[in-house]
Every structure is written in structure tokens, then in C-alpha cells.
Design a protein that fits this description.
Glyoxylate/hydroxypyruvate reductase B; globular; EC 1.1.1.79; single chain; 7-stranded parallel sheet; Rossmann fold; 5-stranded parallel sheet
């Protein structure tokens, strides 16, 4: 009997690919780039499963092209705003993601950005490499203290909680806001629930850990920046459109905030051009989960979900649970 077919839209760590190859015929995008639209529409045809990335736009047209044979789109990432969940559910196609496994890596990267911006690490590194360092200067690359300051956490889910745990080592006061109180972060870390306005006005550092929803799109814009301390730093490792990027540029230029650390962008991979030349911004290319261990485990979760679904079992991390009923 012919093996079932799985398509992977871009190369992922070998361990996950090898696991799928033990069970199925696997085809992988050979190009080191995102598939063009017409390529994606063609490649999903006749597949029993597709392992896709958050850079793939899986809309109703792609789901229709996959046809009734396709049982699952396994998204390689915790977010799934790249997939039309309603259309997938209507077609009885299972959608899965990879939550939990990237919490540590993402929180670690958020802290890396916070510290790099606060201590002006990137600018100082360039200065030193360019041979400009001639002698110690008491006014050279003055940054901001972190220890004992106030951290404002927007979103207190798994990653937000993990991020806040690390703040305790710096004796920080932790404020958080979100849709509801989180007794765990309050009881274990002493975090204090406040409204958005209070958090923005009191925090020395603001870190975003919310999903991309209509309610969180441009959650931080002109009004919010005007509430923040002129000495504050904002970090975003969640989703790019949570910050109004044009408003961010304006806030940085006018000194409404002191700095920003960004892993994600509003119109990714495009970035507001002015951000590229700002000394008080650290920018990295969406690498929050980019450790060997994390990216491998993400692939294994996606692979195991595919194996289970094509074997007639329920996946471990289903997004549209109603399809399983």
C-alpha cells in the first residue's frame, strides 16, 4: 500500500523530518525561502498532511487546493494567525500548533533584548569593533539600571510568567495587566494586577506577551507611548502588529521613551526604515525560539501531531477542537 504523503513548506531540524520519514513519503521545499503563492497552492495538492510555518498564509484558497484528502495542517509555531481557522474547521481539517516548548527560549530572548537595549550593548559593540575605543570615559555609553526597577508585563500567560520569574533575580517590582487576574503569578512572584494605564505610567520596562487578536492589534500606539516614562524601554517578542510601528518611531524620535527591543515587526519581514538607523533600538529577525533544542522540539511536536492524525488518533495540540468531535 502506498505511503501517505506529507509536505513540509520549509526545511526544519532533521530529527523531525526523519521521524516523519519513518511513516510517510515526505516532500520538502528545497528552496531556502518562503514558498511563492502559486508554489504553495500547487504543492499542497494531493497531500495527506502539511507541516507549515507561520510565514505561510494558509487561507481558504490553500485549504481548498489541499482538498478532502488532507487531514491536518500542523503549524510550526505557537501562533496560528497565519491560518484561517474558520475555513479549516468548515472543511474538517485539523489545525495544530506547538505551544509550551518555546516558553523558555522566548522569555530568554526577551530578557536579552531588555538588557541589550538598557546597557546599549549593540552600539557599544560596534563602537569597539570599529576601533573607536581609545580610553575609558565616565560618560561613554551610559545605560539604564535594571536591578530594583519596575517591570510592566502585558500578558501573563506561560511566556509572560516565565519572563517574570527571571525578573525576581533582579529584585524587580512586577506589574501585570491582561484580560483577567492570574493567581499563580501573584502568589509565586508577588506580581500586582493593574490596569493598562497604570502599568504604562509606572513601569521602567514594558514587555509584551499577548497573542495577535483584533483587540491587541496596535495595543501600543501614540496614546500609550505618551503615558510611558521618558526613561522606559519596551520589548516585543509576541507579534509585530501589537505595536503601531509608525507610532514607535515617533515616540523614539521625540524622546517619549528611551529605547526598544524588537524581535517581531508589524509588516514582517518589512521594518519601518527609520528603526534601522536608530541607536536606541535593538532589532533581531524573529529568533525568539531559535535554539537548537527548541526548534527541534517544535518540529517533533508537529511531526507527532501528523503521525497521530494520519493514524486515526487525536493530536496532542489541536487548535480547532470542534473538528475532533
Amino acid at each position: 500500500m502506498d505511503k501517505k504523503k506529507v509536505y513540509i513548506t520549509r526545511r526544519i531540524p532533521d530529527e523531525a523530518i526523519e521521524l516523519l520519514e519513518e511513516h510517510f513519503h515526505v516532500e520538502i521545499n528545497p528552496q531556502d525561502r518562503v514558498l511563492l503563492r502559486e508554489e504553495l497552492l500547487e504543492k499542497v495538492k494531493g497531500m495527506d498532511a502539511v507541516l507549515c510555518l507561520i510565514t505561510d498564509n494558509i487561507d481558504s484558497e490553500v485549504l481548498e487546493a489541499a482538498g478532502t484528502k488532507c487531514k491536518i495542517f500542523a503549524n510550526y509555531g505557537v501562533g496560528y494567525n497565519n491560518i484561517d481557522i474558520v475555513a479549516a474547521t468548515e472543511r474538517r481539517i485539523i489545525i495544530t500548533n506547538t505551544p509550551g516548548v518555546l516558553d523558555d527560549a522566548t522569555a530568554d530572548l526577551a530578557w536579552t533584548l531588555l538588557m541589550a537595549v538598557s546597557r546599549r550593548i549593540v552600539a557599544a559593540d560596534k563602537f569597539t569593533r570599529n576601533g573607536a575605543f581609545q580610553s575609558w570615559d565616565p560618560m561613554m555609553f551610559l545605560g539604564r539600571d535594571i536591578t530594583g526597577k519596575t517591570l510592566g508585563l502585558i500578558g501573563a500567560g506561560r511566556i509572560g510568567f516565565n519572563f517574570a520569574k527571571k525578573a525576581k533575580a533582579f529584585d524587580m517590582k512586577i506589574l501585570y495587566t491582561g484580560l483577567r487576574h492570574n493567581s499563580k503569578i501573584e502568589n509565586e512572584l508577588g506580581a500586582i494586577y493593574v490596569d493598562k494605564e497604570t502599568l504604562l505610567s509606572e513601569a521602567d520596562f514594558v514587555s509584551l506577551h499577548v497573542p495577535l487578536l483584533p483587540s491587541t492589534t496596535h495595543y501600543i500606539s501614540d496614546l500609550e507611548f505618551s503615558m510611558m516614562k521618558k526613561t522606559s524601554v519596551i520589548v516585543n517578542t509576541s507579534r509585530g502588529p501589537v505595536i503601531d510601528e509608525k507610532a514607535l518611531v515617533k515616540a523614539l524620535k521625540q524622546g517619549e521613551i528611551w529605547g526598544a527591543g524588537l524581535d517581531v515587526y508589524e509588516n514582517e519581514p518589512e521594518i519601518e526604515p527609520e528603526l534601522l538607523n536608530m541607536y536606541n533600538v535593538v532589532i533581531v529577525p524573529h529568533i525568539a525560539s531559535a535554539t537548537m533544542e527548541t526548534r527541534t522540539n517544535m518540529g517533533l511536536i508537529a511531526a507527532r501531531n501528523i503521525i497521530k492524525v494520519l493514524s486515526g488518533e487525536k493530536p496532542d495540540t489541536c487548535v480547532n477542537m470542534q473538528v475532533l468531535k
